[in-house]
Write a structure and sequence with these properties.
This protein is of the alpha+beta class. It has 2 helices and 6 strands; from the N terminus they run ββαβββαβ. The longest helix is centred in the middle third of the chain and has 9 residues.
Length: 77
């Protein structure tokens, strides 16, 4: 099932399948180490459009809610 990163539950894992954005956003996320094919885990999120914290490869990153909505993730459930 493909969802937005913001729709994942805490500690749920998924594989990035698409980044819906312009080349600037895609390059920015790639510079952070996020690209299609990577397995990530959502650690936490704040209520009411706050930042989303994820883990990938032993690193933790905080992304704004708007950016997290543009990251499409495939989950197993």
């Amino acid at each position: 099932m493909i969802k937005q990163l913001t729709e994942l539950k805490a500690f749920q894992k998924g594989k990035i399948v698409e980044i819906k954005g312009g080349t600037g956003l895609v390059r920015r996320l790639e510079a952070m180490g996020l690209r299609p094919g990577m397995i990530i885990s959502k650690i936490s999120a704040q209520l009411l459009r706050g930042p989303v914290t994820i883990s990938n490869g032993g690193r933790e990153l905080a992304l704004g809610h708007g950016i997290a909505q543009r990251i499409m993730v495939e989950t197993e459930d």
